[in-house]
Amino acid sequence: MDSIYSGGGTFWWTGLIAVFILPLVTLFKPVLPIALSLTLVLTAYICIMVGMEELKNSAERGVAGIVAVTLAMPTPQSTIYAIVIGVALYFLIERQNSLSNKSVLSTKIARFLFLFSRLQTTYQYKNYQKSSLINHQR
After folding, report:
1. How far apart are CA 20 and CA 24, in angstroms?
2. How far is 123 from 119, CA to CA, in rounded Å?
3. Bigger pLDDT: 107 vs 134
């Protein structure tokens, strides 16, 4: 922009294009919640697949599934419940198998924390989507 007046044409051309795009935005506006839900479902599926590939036996899968279900509860305290339940189940179920090999213990804890962080991200996105829809309806 060479001077204060040289940006005016760009402003008006952009405004003219926006006037023609506005009906398209209005047309697709009712579909946006469905598109956001579909994106959330796809993200959750991919996170579950990545997390399940990290787990090696059925005991680990069971603990991860119970933690995931606990984390998906709609209450704000579900994160705390999921951590407590995950640690308790680890010590009750998985620790007996991993005491024989100490390196396996640290690997399992790392896998648990990785899966938990993936599930937490998905849960936070789901709450963000709900709050944005509620704010949008006001």
Report:
1. 8
2. 6
3. 107
